[in-house]
Structures are given as C-alpha cells and as structure tokens.
Amino acid sequence: MSHKIALNFEDGVTRFIDINAGETVADAAYRQGVNIPLDCRDGACGACKCFAEAGRYDLGDNYIEDALSEDEAQQGYVLTCQMRVESDCVIRVPASSEVCKTQQGVYEATISGVHKLSDSTIALSIKGESLSRLAFLPGQYVNLRVPGSDQTRAYSFSSLPRDGEVSFLIRNVPGGLMSTFLTSLAKAGDSMTLSGPLGSFYLREIKRPLLLLAGGTGLAPFTAMLEKIAEEGSAYPLHLIYGVTNDLDLVGLDRLEEFTRRIPNFTFSACVANPESSYPRKGYVTQHIEPKHLNEGDVDVYLCGPPPMVEAVSQYIREQGIQPANFYYEKFAASAA
C-alpha cells in the first residue's frame, strides 16, 4: 500500500511524493528526484534529520543516539533514512527546495467560473486535466499569473480539488491587476497558469480545540480546511469567527452553515466592524473571542487576515495572559496595479 508524503521546505515550497510500503522516506524522495539532505543512510550522522508534523511512522531501532536523541524523537524529529510511514505524513525539511533540487509545480488550467459575490469579493473557479495531479495542504496558496501579463498574485485555495477543479475567494481591489481582469475581461475557457503549492499556513493534525479567525477573504483557507475536517471528522470542538468591514463584505455564510451540519462540533459567528451595520453582531473579531474559545491555552489558533487584524489579535491574546498551544497565522495585503 502506498502513501503520500508532503515535504515542506524552508522557503515555503511544498512537494508531494508517493512512498511504497516498506520504503524509507529518503529512498522515496530520491527515487522521485527530490534530493533531501542525506549522507550515511545508516542512521549514524543525523544529516537527514527532519520534523514530522503529522502522520504515523516507524523509525526502527537502527539509528544511534548521536544522530537522533530519545527526546528529539518524542518531539517529532525523524531520520528520513530510517523513517517508514504507516499513513500519509507531513514532513518539514530544514533546507530550501532549491538546495534539494526540486521546485514548485506549474499547472495550466482554464476558468470554469467567475462570480462577483459582492462589491469586495470575487469567486474564481479554474479547471484542467493537470489539476487532477495537484495536491496541497488545506490552507496553502498558489501564485496565479494574471493573463496578458508576467505578474502573479497569491491566493489561498478556498476548496479542495474536485474533479480537476479548485476555487478561490479574491478581494476585488479597485485598480488591481487581477481584479480588473476578473471583473472586466475574464470569461469561461480563458487560460490561467498557477504555480505552487506554497506556504506554512495549513491545517495540522487536530489534537485539541481549534479557534479559527478570518478577516475578509482570509475566509478562503478556512473553507478548504473545513472541507478536509468534514471528510475526516474531529473529536474536538472547532469555532470560527469571521469578521468584515461592511455588511456587503459578508460572503459564504451559507457555506459555513452547511459545515455546521456536516461537522457536529463546529460553530461559527460573523461580525461587521462598521458601527452603522444592520448585522446583529457588530465590532471586531477580538470583541467576540470568549474565554471558552481560548480554553485556558489548550487551543490551536489559526488566523488569516490583513496585517492590522493579525497584530490586534496577537495583542489581545497577550493581554489575556494566555499562551495558546499553537498560534498559526498568515497576513495578506492587496496588490494594486
């Protein structure tokens, strides 16, 4: 039985490889042209030491303490020359993709749908045969090349791949290069090129309650994460707080409602910052974080939004005197023409 391994390099590039039963991660990587750090192959030098973020595996007992200590192994460090997996795994490699002689994938696709959800948000779907080979960790992003130019824009996936199709939530920036194309020129069948996947903001193995905080189109990576959770289930409570500036910026609420039906322990709330809003819940995301959501620190916090929001949430959590078990965040800023 084969499994899939996600190798996350320190420059943000992710490369997926297939591994056969009984094969070491190092052998599988080299077989597929990924030269991860390696020297002795005998578990004696420690050159291939990486960190396993998710998955089940066996390290055997043929390596020495100088290469990997018992304490390191308990923390999740592994020697890829000894590591044999028992499930899909995510491994952090302490080297760049360039050093390891690999690169991000490039995919050709066509637009299958463009929908203006509001004055501030555009939903884009693209489809192509090459996307049937696309793999990414929920929460990651790709660089989409703006048709007719040599420039790219980074967007998080808002869905998992389905039948060679993926989707994005894109902020409609007045004068923005991609926004102008999508609102004025784009039509079904137009070609698009994407490269990736990229990014260290992605769903880890769920070991405790989650607090998900989204600002504007920062909702996109969370809907991809929630699709994955809906497929696999979770024994822990999950709560998402989604904040926007104005009433018209609220999009995707029906999809979040659907997730509450598919994921029994998932709840969400939305809020609008504009004090003149007609939406029942007003204010910023930080005003709607309740003590139970932070669970006295036994919580993993995921945050995606504009830089001021990320900084405000970080400050708020510090002021509560709470240190979350893990705090993952991604900042994004709009690009004009």
Structural commentary:
The protein has 337 residues and is α/β, with parallel strands linked by helices. The chain folds into 3 domains: 3-93, Ubiquitin-like (UB roll) (Roll); 105-198, Beta Barrel (Elongation Factor Tu (Ef-tu), domain 3); 210-331, Nucleotide-binding domain of ferredoxin-NADP reductase (FNR) module (Rossmann fold, 3-Layer(aba) Sandwich). The protein is built from 7 helices and 18 strands. It has helices spanning 25-31, 70-75, 177-185, 220-232, 253-262, 291-294, 307-319; strands spanning 3-9, 14-19, 49-54, 57-58, 77-79, 84-85, 89-93, 105-118, 121-127, 141-145, 152-156, 165-171, 191-198, 210-215, 238-244, 266-272, 300-305, 326-331. It has a 6-stranded antiparallel β-sheet. Strand 1 (3-9) and strand 2 form a beta hairpin. Helix 4 runs parallel beside helix 5. The chain is globular. The mean pLDDT is 91.
